[in-house]
Write a structure and sequence with these properties.
The chain is an alpha/beta fold. 38% of the residues lie in helices and 19% in strands.
């Protein structure tokens, strides 16, 4: 299992918005945490693997060091100048990239031993169809890794952080909150906690790019669990990560907030699932 290098993850996190290549490198080093999670959940990375929403391609490249073959797909060609270049530089020849829609995968049923969806489902237009397609291309004894963040929590909003932590999206609604942060990035970036290199809002404002909102699925835990079942999948392993402010509370209170259906969407900063076909 690859060593988790927090120093490299932190270093590349600070540069990830400079280019697709930099973001791919960040994903490459960060993927060591995903590999460790799968190992703890008893999932062996071998055979044929699909990264269903690979972005620049850093994660497929990392997984290819453990699997027989890895395919990375993304609806935009973000990988040709990142993942392909990194694969060539590192002499990795068991990874391939395909421009494809995760809601209409160009693979025959039962192709892959392992399918991964790392922080992708919130960016697809039809989450139900996406999960069913991922289930279709899995082998009957395959595994499916899914991670995401509930929309109502601060990480799930996919918005910058203000110096004063206020959940703007809860008070203003998504469209107005998004436009507000776009304005702040252009006219008052000092009000945002993240530096420019760690904030795509500021980067795009400086480049004169109009940033568009690509958060298409406002993930809610109850709906997500329902969609998983409707796709013919069952939960093998579930890990719920609470946000930092909740971790500082007494453990019993933090656990209640995490497990309560009333508060889980507010306090879960990330959720990870290992799923299998429900047959």
């Amino acid at each position: 299992m690859r060593e988790i290098r927090d120093d490299l993850i932190k270093d590349h996190a600070g540069r990830r918005f400079r280019s697709e290549y930099d973001y791919a490198l960040f994903e490459y080093y960060r993927s060591a945490k995903l590999i460790a999670f799968l190992d703890r959940a008893g999932v062996r990375i071998g055979g044929r693997v699909l990264d269903c929403g690979c972005g620049g391609g850093g994660m497929p490249l990392s997984l290819a060091e453990h699997a027989c073959h890895v395919t990375g797909i993304d609806p935009m060609d973000r990988f040709s100048q990142a993942g392909v270049t990194l694969a060539r530089e590192r002499h990795v020849d068991n990874v391939s990239f395909v421009r494809a829609d995760g809601m209409a995968l160009p693979f025959v049923s039962g192709t892959f031993d392992l399918v991964l969806s790392h922080s992708v489902i919130e960016h697809v237009a039809d989450a139900a169809r996406y999960l069913k397609e991922c289930r279709r291309v899995m082998k009957d004894d395959g595994r499916f890794y899914v991670s995401t963040a509930p929309y109502l929590s601060p990480p799930g909003a996919h918005l910058p952080h203000l110096l004063v932590p206020v959940p703007v999206h809860l008070f203003l609604g998504r469209p107005l909150a998004f436009r507000s942060f776009r304005w702040l990035a252009r006219h008052a970036p000092w009000m945002l906690r993240e530096p420019a290199d760690e904030n795509s809002f500021i980067r795009d404002a400086r480049l004169g790019i109009v940033k568009h909102d690509d958060l298409l699925e406002k993930v809610r835990m109850r709906r997500l669990r329902g969609l998983i079942a409707e796709a013919g999948l069952r939960v093998v392993h579930e890990h719920l990560h609470v946000i930092g402010s909740v971790r500082r509370l007494p453990p019993a209170i933090g656990q209640w907030l995490r497990d309560s259906r009333l508060t889980e969407d507010l306090v879960l900063g990330n959720v990870e699932y290992v799923l299998s076909p429900d047959i």
